[in-house]
Amino acid sequence: MTARRWWGVLMLAVALLFPADAHAEDKVLRIAFDKALPPFSSVDSTGEAAGFNIELIRYIAEHSGWELEYVPLDWEEAVTALRTGEVDVLLGMKYTNRYDQIFDFSESFFTMSEVLLVPSYDQDIFTLNQLSEKVVAVQRGHTSMDLLESVRRVKMIVSFSQQEALENLLRRRADAFIGNRWTAEYLLRKEDRWDDFTMRSGLINPTDYAFAVREGHSELLDSLNEGLNQLYRDGTYTRLYSKYFEPYSPHLTDWWRKVVAGLLIALAVGVISIAAFYAWNKRLQAEVKRQTSALADVLAFQREVLDHTESSILSLDMNGHITLVNQVAKRMLSVSDDWLGRHIVSILPQLPWEAALANRHRHYEDEFVWNPDTQQVYHYFMAPFANSAQEQVGWIVTLQDRTEQKRMQARLIAQEKMRALGQLVAGIAHELRNPLTAIKTFVELLPKKMDDARFRTQMLRYVPEEMERMNRILEDLLDYSRTKPLQTQRIALDELVHSVLGLFARRMESERIGVNVRIPVHLMIDVDRGRVKQVLINLVLNAMEAMVASSEKRLFIQAGEDSGQVWLSIADTGEGMRREQLDSLFEPFYTSKAHGIGLGLYVSQKIMREHGARMEVTSEVKTGTTFTLWFNKEVSHAELADSR
């Protein structure tokens, strides 16, 4: 037992041993009060009585010439002390029929109401009826216990004071708190915890709050009422109310006075306007009926639209419980209206519900296999939806059966592979037929012209060339079908470019192609020399072939650095390409040439990607084409492995 409780017990014992009449000549009043009900009454850090009720009785005592003896007690102890006559006045008691049978009450000086307080994150408790199966913190002997008698299966944690009951809520021992609205706000603001809780019902059971005395003490009761009236007249009550309650609520006394005056005025005006109000009410009823009918039509139309759309549609609340299922969803998922209220994970565990809880503002979209036996594939789209105030109130989930689409895609891919294979076979057959025809011709003439020196010279010249041509075709095919490991080394870019140009020097001279090279000598790159050389050879050959019909044949090769990368551009003044040609440029087997199978640029782009590099192209018809290669200055082995 705390020191304060011992002090209260000691005061009661003294009162029993030495009883005194409040109307005796010394006029000492023993005042009991709830010691833990701020801002109405409490014991401060110095042990002194403090609060709104304390100051009221103190001013009344000064007016009446009384001496006061304060007895701080728990609420039940204070009620018992007043009933047994151990104290003369109990500061602050709600008027109830039960208490009116054993006590007399002064005029009301406050309107007291209870509050239902829950944590701000709670989305389950909004009214008293929703406290079923919940734990509620209350004060022993308080009227809040009477309120909970009508709630089935409610569990109560009973404390000796409002402060102890609130502590049970703060420590999460209880789901809710019912008690004094002003005391709750006072204590929570003092702890800087007010924003952590929400008042679901702020004016529960409002009743009069007054001083209580033992039954029959009419003289003391008259003195208390006279003192209260004096406080109203001289403005002391208003000043004290503003001091203790203005930060939390409007002045109730002034409010009631204004209400009474307003009611009198309204009554006078109402007698005159009742006929007009009746007519307006009739019109309002008709308009409400019309709007209700229109709303019903809109809702019915929306339901018809939902039920006849091709997509399954489900709506969820913020906690993931199903609130609506359209007819398509019922058929697709084999569910009924009995599933309303169940959690979405129990029906669709494939949805990323945990991720949605972590990030409530994202949209989620993907596919999953619904039935492994039939390989049914569903595509889902899950998005949050908000009310008119832009507050998120739940989720919308749509489902579409993509099974047939997936099967169609698979068939199209297979057809495309067969078409590509046919193009490949046709291209290879065409390319191999020409060199084989030449070789066959020489072989057939060999017995007849073995002694012809000119024939032998032509055979030794053309047969190796045709065989090399066949070898190049096979090498291109192998480059398309397999990936060779890269053998990177640090090389100078200008040296690599000039080595490629040297291969075509005689042809460029014969075709009158001008070459302009601008490459800084210090540019170094880490690449597989042979593979990148293959890319450059392919680009230079393409540029030369594009300029066959051009009146001015110029080849521009430039390089530089930008944002830690090395770039190399190869531009020609050829015929250029159209938009549709650019879109298919890097596809395998695509070619605009009379000869070739369309693997050169595809393989070149593949080589660039293996290096962690990229290739870009721009072109303009009748002007020319520019290919730009972008290389990292240094490529790590990990990057190369990732690119492969």
Q: What layout of secondary structure does this protein have?
A:
Blueprint: H1 3-17, E1 28-34, E2 36-37, E3 41-43, E4 49-50, H2 52-64, E5 67-73, H3 75-83, E6 89-94, H4 97-100, E7 103-105, E8 110-119, E9 135-139, H5 143-147, E10 155-159, H6 162-170, E11 176-180, H7 181-190, E12 197-214, H8 218-233, H9 236-245, H10 252-308, E13 312-317, E14 322-325, H11 327-333, H12 353-358, E15 364-371, E16 376-386, E17 392-401, H13 403-445, H14 453-481, E18 488-492, H15 493-503, H16 505-510, E19 514-518, E20 524-528, H17 529-546, E21 554-562, E22 565-572, H18 579-583, H19 600-610, E23 614-620, E24 624-632, H20 637-643
Parallel strand pairs: 1-5, 1-6, 9-10, 9-11, 19-21
Antiparallel strand pairs: 2-3, 3-4, 6-12, 7-12, 8-11, 8-12, 13-14, 13-17, 15-16, 16-17, 18-20, 21-22, 22-24, 23-24
Give a structural overview.
This protein is an alpha+beta fold. Helix content is about 45%, strand content about 25%. The chain has 20 helices and 24 strands. Strands 1, 5, 6, 7, 8, 9, 10, 11 and 12 form a 9-stranded mixed beta sheet that branches. The protein has a 5-stranded antiparallel beta sheet with strand order 14-13-17-16-15. A hairpin with a 2-residue loop joins β21 and β22 (about 565-570). α15 packs across α17. It is elongated, with a radius of gyration of 47 Å. Residues about 1-5, about 15-25, about 250-255 and about 635-644 have low confidence and may be disordered.
